Every structure is written in C-alpha cells, then in structure tokens.
Amino acid sequence: MAHIQPQNKLKHIQEHKMPRITTQELHSEVEQVKRDINVIKDNHLAHLERSMANLEVDVKDNRKYFDIRLNNLDNKIWALVLLTISTLGATIASIVM
After folding, report:
1. For residue 59, what are the domain limits?
2. Are the beta carbons of 8 and 15 closer than 8 angstroms?
3. Residue 73 lies in a domain
C-alpha cells in the first residue's frame, strides 16, 4: 500500500469517507435485521426441525428393523453351531463305540 503524504491525508479521508447514518436509519436497519431473523427462524429453521423429527422417527424404525434382523441371524447362527456340535458329538461317539 502506498504511503500517503500528510498534506494529502485529509483529502484522502474526505474522498473515502462513509456517509453518516442517522439514528432513524440505524433503527430502521436494526428492525429489518430483526424481521429477517424471524423469517429465518420461522421458515427455514422450522423446516429443518420438522425434517430432523421425521429423520429421527425413520432412524428409530430402521433400528428396530435391523435389531429384529440381527436377532434372527443370531438365532440361525446358534442353531448352526448347535447342529455342528451335535453332529461332531455323534460322529465322535460312533467312532469311539
């Protein structure tokens, strides 16, 4: 950034000066920001909240489904293990006798 000479500083500041904002304009902008926040909260965040509630229900349903499926698979595995052990026991018993 170029260095500004002291005699040109005032001129530079005046050229780049922002216009003064009145209290009424500032109050109006604050009120507009408040309205925008309410629109975001009421419209957008409400949609997100409903979507999250629906998603939570769906996840619970999926969990129940997979719990049942895993329990069924677990029962089948135990049945195979018991069948294998009983077959092995019967084979060993027939060889020994």
Report:
1. 29-96
2. no
3. yes
Domains of the chain: total: 1
Q: Which amino acid is at 52?
A: M
Q: Residue length, the chain?
A: 97
In a domain, 16, yes or no: no
The pTM of the full predicted model, rounded to 2 decimals, is: 0.43
- Per-residue pLDDT tens for 33-71? 999 988 888 887 788 888 888 999 999 999 999 999 999
Q: What are the tens digits of pLDDT across the range 46-56?
A: 888 888 889 99
User: Alpha-carbon distance 77 to 84, whole Å?
Assistant: 10
Q: What 8-state DSSP symbol labels residue 68? A: H
CA distance 42 to 35: 10
